[in-house]
């Protein structure tokens, strides 16, 4: 009877050790995977680019239009309850020579040509900002780009929109 007790004892020990070993292997992998997914999902930076504008110049001595875009960079947050805070703001501009614009497009100086030059200056600023963000690793988020309109300063502010970007944190 003592041999039976001894062999049962070792069998139970072997089963427990093997079971514990398998349990540890199975659940430690799942816990590591969940931690890795959580760590990856929290590592993004965000920014927004305002709708570009180029105020129309006054009639006296129009020689250039300056298109402007504002890029706002937000602080990375680690959980859903934390509010995004802006880190810094960058103004990106593009200058358009009005005389060259008129010559290239065969236009006379009038209200419509000033409007067209203003629009072109805002498009150039947008392209410059988009190129800069793309080179810096930012990608457009969502469909905010669908309803994007180029404007001048005379358009009502409630019609303006922004384009949002994200990039992975290094």
Quick rundown:
The protein is of the alpha+beta class. It has 3 helices and 5 strands; from the N terminus they run αβββααββ.
Describe it.
The chain has helices at about 1-40, 100-105, 110-135; strands at about 45-50, 65-75, 85-95, 140, 160-170. By secondary structure, it is an alpha+beta fold. It folds into two domains: about 1-40; about 45-170. Strands 3-2-1-5-4 form a five-stranded antiparallel beta sheet. The longest helix has about 40 residues, at about 1-40. The chain is rod-shaped. Residues about 155-160 have low confidence and may be disordered.
Low-confidence stretches: 155-159
Number of structurally distinct domains: 2
Cα radius of gyration in angstroms: 30 Å
Give the helix tally.
3
* Order of H and E elements: HEEEHHEE
Helix content: 40-55%
The chain-level structural class is alpha+beta
* Mean of residue pLDDT values: 76
* Overall 3D shape: rod-shaped
Trace the largest sheet across and list its strands.
Answer: 3-2-1-5-4
**N-to-C span:** 66 Å
Summary tags:
rod-shaped, 170 residues, alpha+beta, 2 domains, 43% helix, 5 strands, five-stranded antiparallel beta sheet
Summarize the helices and strands and which ones pair or pack:
Blueprint: H1 2-41, E1 44-50, E2 64-74, E3 86-97, H2 98-105, H3 111-135, E4 139-141, E5 162-168
Antiparallel strand pairs: 1-2, 1-5, 2-3, 4-5
């Amino acid at each position: 009877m003592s041999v039976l007790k001894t062999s049962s004892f070792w069998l139970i020990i072997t089963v427990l050790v093997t079971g514990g070993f398998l349990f540890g292997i199975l659940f430690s992998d799942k816990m590591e995977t969940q931690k890795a997914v959580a760590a990856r999902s929290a590592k993004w930076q965000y920014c927004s680019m305002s709708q570009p504008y180029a105020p129309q110049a006054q009639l006296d001595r129009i020689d250039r239009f300056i298109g402007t875009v504002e890029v706002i960079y937000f602080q990375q947050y680690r959980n859903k309850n934390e509010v995004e805070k802006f880190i810094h703001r960058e103004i990106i501009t593009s200058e358009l020579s009005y005389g060259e614009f008129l010559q290239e497009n065969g236009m006379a100086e009038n209200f419509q040509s000033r409007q067209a030059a203003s629009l072109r200056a805002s498009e150039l600023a947008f392209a410059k900002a988009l190129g800069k963000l793309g080179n810096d690793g930012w990608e457009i988020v969502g469909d905010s780009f669908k309803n994007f309109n180029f404007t001048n300063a005379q358009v009502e502010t409630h019609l303006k929109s922004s384009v949002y970007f994200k990039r992975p944190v290094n």
